[in-house]
Amino acid sequence: MVSLRALHAFALLARNGRAAQAADDLGISPSALSHLLRKLESELGATLVLRDGRGLSLTEEGKRLAAGLGDAFERIESAVDGFRRRGRTELRISTVSTFATRWLIPRLPQFQTAQPDVELLLSASTRVVDLDRENYDCAIRLGRGDWPGIDATLLWREHLAVAMAPRLMREDAGFEATLPGIKLLHSASRRDDWSRWLAHAGLKLPDASSGMVLESRDLAIQAAIAGMGAIVIDRRFVMLELAAGHLVMPDWPVLQLDSGYWFVRSPNRPLSRPISGFRDWLIGTSAADAG
Q1: Is 11 within 8 Å of 69 (Cβ atoms)?
Q2: For residues 264 and 152, is the Cβ–Cβ distance under 8 A?
Q3: Angle at the Cα of 254 (from 251 to 259), degrees rounded to 5?
Q4: pLDDT (tens digit, 9 = 90+) per residue, 139-160?
Q5: Secondary structure tally for the chain: helices H, strands E
Q6: Gap between the Cα atoms of 101 and 63, Å rounded
Q7: How many CA atoms within 13 Å lie on the side-chain side of 213?
Q8: Which superkingdom, per the lineage (predicted)?
Q9: 43-57, 142-156, 244-258: least confidently modelled range
Q10: Spatial separation of the C-alpha atoms in residues 141 and 127, rounded to whole Å
């Protein structure tokens, strides 16, 4: 008898084209995925996958099996998901980590109060999800809003402003005098933010690219609170810290960016009440923050 789990692993590899993504979707390690694929090949007595330094690819027999399977597992997943969701209204949201931790989650109690019957399932990832094929109702994306085949609503355009711990501020000193004596904090995913802001402000620093590099903007914010240096960040992501006095944002130049945060959904799926309610809440809440 053929292992259904091994067959599912093969179907995910055939669908995604990447072993790492197939393993992630199945919730296992890449080595465990490889073991399942070998198990399936042993059970069927056929070589389904080519293994070389470039990764995994399907053999001709593998392609024939994939064509025969079609979307069987996707239909099974859809049927099981529909069964699980009986009697509940779920909203599955994909977003990026900084938006989730620094802005969305602190405000979600407001949405839950307004929509108590909606159960939120939130996933934070840098991967751009396929809203037509994957099990997400909507997403928050960072970019310019020019994604083909996507219904996108702008929440806000990004800006960059300087923030730091109050003890790092020099009384009555502008950024030209203050920043040369402060370490600059960088996020690994946004290494050019400081260079863009400095160019906008017209300030040249010989060591602008040096300083501590942190994995995420959230960690960079925590380092700034600890007084380890200055950051450039969108004000909306540090509003609580500014209100509490943990950070200050001096009246220095602000760089407006072309990119922004967008609510996105597939126009090929129904616009349900939870989706439209969440979209409208996002628009209203982000507008209130801007005011």
Answers
A1: yes
A2: yes
A3: 155
A4: 999 999 989 999 999 999 999 9
A5: 12, 10
A6: 42
A7: 9
A8: Bacteria
A9: 43-57
A10: 10
What per-residue confidence (pLDDT) applies to 170?
Answer: 81
Angle, CA 17 vertex, CA 72 and CA 8 arms, to 5°: 35
pTM of the model: 0.68
Phi/psi of residue 2, each to 5°? -80, 135
| 282: enclosing H helix or E strand | helix 273-290
More confident residue, 222 or 71: 222
Q: Which residues pair with 56 in a beta bridge?
A: 51
Q: How confident is the model at residue 24 (pLDDT cuts 50, 70, 90)?
A: confident
Task: Give the span between the Cα atoms of 173 and 49, in whole angstroms.
Answer: 65
Q: Are strands 55-58 and 213-214 parallel, antiparallel or unpaired?
A: unpaired
CA 34/CA 40 separation, integer angstroms: 10
pLDDT at 11 over 80: yes
**Which tokens sit at 263?**
């609510």
pLDDT for the residue numbered 89: 79
Are the C-beta atoms of residues 280 and 201 closer than 8 Å to each other?
no
State the Rg of the chain over Cα.
Answer: 24
Amino acid at residue number 82: G
- Among 242, 220, 240, 218, residue whose Cα is nearest residue 231: 220
Residue 86 has pLDDT above 60, yes or no: no
